[in-house]
Amino acid sequence: MENQEKISITTKTLASGNRQVKFFIEDEVKPQYGYLLVTEPKPVGEIIEEIKQRMERRKSSAMNLNPFFPVPAVQEDHNFYLFSA
Q1: Which domain of life is it from (predicted)?
Q2: Quick one: average pLDDT of 25-54?
Q3: DSSP character for 1?
Q4: pTM for the structure as a whole
Q5: Pairing state of beta strands 19-26 and 6-13?
Q6: Would you state the pLDDT for residue 43?
Q7: Number of neighbouring beta carbons within 10 Å of residue 83
Q8: Are 22 and 35 in contact (CB under 8 A)?
Q9: What pLDDT is recorded for position 13?
């Protein structure tokens, strides 16, 4: 099942030289927004693919929660933040 939500982004160069990417996921059921910190210049297509991959990782780690089988803690990603709109 492929999600067909639309992702739009805006970027801002920080004093550190890194780029802050603010993204919006336009989904009728569950709109979201978030931030991604990018340490090197990337084309828009690569940034959107990275956002999709990180969202998939987050979704799959949330689905693997089984109270009967302890799962090793997933390392927090301090360069990717996701919020419900």
Answers
A1: Bacteria
A2: 92
A3: -
A4: 0.75
A5: antiparallel
A6: 92
A7: 9
A8: yes
A9: 93
Amino acid at 35: Y
**Position 75, amino acid:** Q
DSSP 10-71: EEEE-TTS-EEEEEEEE-SSS-EEEEEEESS---HHHHHHHHHHHHHHHHHHHHT-BTTB--
- Tell me how long the chain is: 85
CB neighbour burial string for 44-82, b if at least 16 within 10 angstroms, e if fewer:
eeebbebbeebbeeeeeeeeeeeeeeeeeeeeeeeebeb
Average pLDDT score, the chain = 83
Residue 74 corresponds to which tokens in the numbers above? Answer: 């997933």
Instruction: Report how far residue 38's alpha carbon sits from residue 18's, in angstroms, rounded to the nearest whole number.
Output: 6
pLDDT tens per residue across span 40-78: 889 999 999 999 999 888 877 766 666 665 555 556 778
- For residue 25, count other CB atoms closer than 10 A to its CB: 20
Sheet holding 19-26, edge to edge: 6-13, 19-26, 32-38, 80-84
